[in-house]
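Milestone M4 deliverable, item 7.
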Amino acid sequence: MRMIDHFLAGGTAGLTPGRTHRVWNPSTGEVQAQVGLGDASLLDRAVAAARAVQPGWAQTNPQRRARVMFRFKELIEKNMADLAHLLASEHGKVIDDAKGDIQRGLEVIEYCCGIPQVLKGEFTLGAGPGIDVYSMRQPLGIGAGITPFNFPAMIPMWMFGMATAVGNAFILKPSERDPSVPVRLAELFVEAGAPEGLLQVVHGDKEMVDAILDHPDIAGVSFVGSSDIAHYVYKRGVAAGKRVQAMGGAKNHGIVMPDADLDQVVNDLTGAAFGSAGERCMALPVVVPVGADTADALREKLVPAINALRVGVSTDPEAHYGPVVTPEHKARVEGWIDTAEREGAEIVIDGRGFTLQGHENGFYVGPTLIDRVTTDMESYREEIFGPVLQIVRARDFEEALRLPSEHQYGNGVAIFTRNGHAAREFASRVNVGMVGINVPIPVPVAYHSFGGWKRSAFGDTNQYGTEGVKFWTKVKTVTQRWPDGGGDGSNAFIIPTMG
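Output delivered:
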């Protein structure tokens, strides 16, 4: 049985027998590896290695740090196919989705290649008589990231790319469900020229999470996962004096106005709701048609499109999506379909009990469409995180606007319309952090930033872009004066009064 080790100080940690976690092949239902689960003593080793290398890295000029990012980018591109197959084998997403996972992370690395420009501070000449003021951004020191299973390449690169580019060392704790790609990324980072110990990977469960949150030498923590855990991470990390950003769950809505191009909407929905088996925090699992005629017409077009979706193993080039990540997650998703049925929703297309011929033990859930969903249903209020699309019918624009605005999650939302005024009004008023207008998955590009509202995010700073630079740095402001004179004290420095 393959054992997946931690990655400390540029190499394996020398894993000793202890607690482990199973790593499945979701396509076959077989256990393919075991990953060792670390503890506080292992984290201490990682922190010591990070502490040894971080000051020198922070003093390395920004363009030299950027060159490491350039080489890392080239290595990712060179190894794209191998990384995608490794990712798909542990997560279950099809190869094209796996490549997309890597590519979206790589876009943040590309942004980091320009870090010298972004790190330039501010300068004011003549703020007072002979006085200049300037600011600089300096790294926090040691940062840590706790990442989920659903994007084992993209989200780690969002975090460690930004953190290291600005001068921090970084310790990554990826999901124990699919840990191999994060380790491989760390290996490639060293190959790109990063000092050994700058980026390390520690595996673990809650014990490791708590150790990270409590460690006095870790200054900042970034987290992506479910909302309850995000809230826990935020509270515990802040209580320990850390800077914390914690991104939580989502229940993204797609509003379909009566004037929308329904053929385009159906095409967008089948990808946004069912791609990657719906295991995306920016999936579109709720569609809100406005008006009964729109709802009926949309449903009529959705049914054949969803029935035509092909579910397959992760390496099937014809498959639209693959299995979910574990048998427990399969049971959870099917349990939510059971709940919706008990609550009185109409199961239009039922994906429960789906099996794939020749892979009967794989963790497959068929595409599911549920209509007549109402806001008092638990299946609507909570995140299902699977290949399930719910229809919530709205009478008019105002009701459609209220649905995502009043939901506990506020990650993303989309509106489909040809009416520019309606789109502008919706984007301005909706109580959600990221908005798509005829764009079903509105994940911002790398030079903007990613972050939701309400229970979708805890903390004041978003992921990547200039927001990421702000999170992983602290501002120092210098007020300086260089007096004239020959050293006789006639021009001794006096703290000025600004008027």
